[in-house]
Amino acid sequence: MKPLNTNANKHTFSSIFIKFAVCFLLLGLAYRLFSSSSVQFSPVVVTTGTAFYEEKALPPNPPVSSSTDLLRENPTSKNVSERCNVFVGNWVRDRTGPFYTNATCSSIEDHQNCMRNGRPDTDYVYWRWKPRDCNLPRFDPKRFLNMMRGKSLAFIGDSIMRNHVQSLLCILSQVEQAVATYHDEQYKSRRWVFPSHRLTLSVVWSPFLTKASVYEDLNGISSGIIQLHLDDLDATWTDQYKNFDYVVIAGGKWFLKSAIYYENNTIVGCHNCQGKNITQLGFYHAYRKALNSTLKFITSSKHKAFTFFRTTTPDHFENGEWNTGGYCNRTRPFREGEIDINDMDGMMRNIELEEFERAAAIGSEKDLTLKLFDTTSISLLRPDGHPGVYRQFHPYSRKDKHLKLQNDCLHWCLPGPIDYWNDLMMEIFVNG
Ligand SMILES: *[C@@H]1O[C@H](CO)[C@@H](O)[C@H](O)[C@H]1NC(C)=O
Ligand SMILES: *[C@@H]1O[C@H](CO)[C@@H](O)[C@H](O)[C@H]1NC(C)=O
Ligand SMILES: *[C@@H]1O[C@H](CO)[C@@H](O)[C@H](O)[C@H]1NC(C)=O
Ligand SMILES: *[C@@H]1O[C@H](CO)[C@@H](O)[C@H](O)[C@H]1NC(C)=O
Ligand SMILES: *[C@@H]1O[C@H](CO)[C@@H](O)[C@H](O)[C@H]1NC(C)=O
Ligand SMILES: *[C@@H]1O[C@H](CO)[C@@H](O)[C@H](O)[C@H]1NC(C)=O
């Protein structure tokens, strides 16, 4: 196994904080720099042990030869109505391409608008998720809007949730234009309606899901340690919960941030709070507790929402972290088995699975539909789907060339691999 990143520059921590605005990425940093070095942090580990561009198992470039890939699919393969884990599989060539482009969807966030920002390669939009044991039908926006007629669908979480909502919005808006009806001051929580289908779509900003005091400005620069309550939920989402028919919810990388943890309004410990004489509990503890509190609320609520609980999405920084020159310029997906999840994402995922199983058992006794939305593997296999340097507009034609280019190897280009999360969501709606 060959780790592709390095742990260099451990001591340049404070000076680097200045530039980068994606606060989401700040955390990876905090965790990786502060935690003990015994854990392997490489976000990408190529199990074949070969060079950076491992291509032997991959089919040739699209759109040239995509028809052969379609033919290669076993024509007798089971259809989706039969039991199949849709989250296990591979990305296969598909010349169909995306539902939308930067020209046909106007609501793509600048930092994820890779086409507009000048990303030169386009291969990354010509792959389709193919579950190993069945076929996954392409998302059908008309059918989705009809199924969701009169309903309210909410995405609750961090900027990866926002990334997902924007993908869905772009796809649906090819059928019916959404009308924005609400936004908070920073446009983090938002709501739209699709008037002729009376569908309400919300994204609710709640990166910890539990109550938190965060002292960060718009650029993600912190002026104080986060105070995080592990047993008290964030009212931003719980106050609205009764209005939602469908909920997609997840924790994520915000938990890597330094924080002081509370239970029953009393300090119980912290993560990275050196010098404060508080027990270092570490963020895994907090992650488990917060997910447990969240799922407890959902399973004990009188209101029953069809709930998707999403698992963690690995990032793909290589040869460094986001702030130490890490980048993600691969142009091909990995094949199943070609890459291992790193220890940290693996731990987060185990915690998610354990807490989900316990909640699902409780939920099933109460006739509550709680589904695991297991996007870890589908994400892990797409190192090519991130904005990378194309998080900024035409990065190589800027005047201030001396500034180091910032890479985003966590969020997803739109259009991009995250569009397929909607296919998976639809499949679960339709076939359970
Ligand atoms: C596919 O799905 C249909 C129902 O939609 C079912 O009748 C059929 O037996 C399934 N299996 C195969 C192999 O076609
Ligand atoms: C979309 O991206 C292309 C480059 O791929 C660019 O030429 C075009 O101006 C962009 N259009 C919009 C509306 O952003
Ligand atoms: C929570 O704290 C209050 C005092 O602030 C105490 O009376 C109560 O017993 C505590 N509950 C638990 C479960 O520890
Ligand atoms: C740290 O906390 C413990 C227990 O709360 C206390 O006994 C000890 O004196 C504290 N140490 C310092 C240096 O404040
Ligand atoms: C990716 O970036 C590295 C470091 O800048 C460079 O050596 C490599 O050639 C790049 N690969 C591609 C496909 O651009
Ligand atoms: C939360 O944790 C408690 C205590 O460990 C456990 O009994 C319960 O099953 C967990 N999950 C939920 C949804 O309550």
UniProtKB/TrEMBL annotation:
Annotated keywords: Membrane, Signal-anchor, Transmembrane, Transmembrane helix
Main location per the UniProt record: membrane
Location(s) in or outside the cell: Membrane
Keyword Transmembrane helix recorded: yes
GO terms for MF: O-acetyltransferase activity
Source species, domain of life: Eukaryota
Membrane topology: Single-pass membrane protein
Cellular component aspect of the GO annotation: Golgi apparatus; membrane
InterPro entries cross-referenced by the UniProt entry: TBL, TBL_C, TBL_N
UniProt domain Trichome birefringence-like C-terminal: residue ranges: 136-427
Transmembrane segments: 12-34
Trichome birefringence-like N-terminal domain sequence ranges: 82-135
Membership in a protein family: Belongs to the PC-esterase family. TBL subfamily.
Name used for this protein in its record: Trichome birefringence-like 25
Native source species: Olea europaea subsp. europaea
Lineage of producing organism: Eukaryota, Viridiplantae, Streptophyta, Embryophyta, Tracheophyta
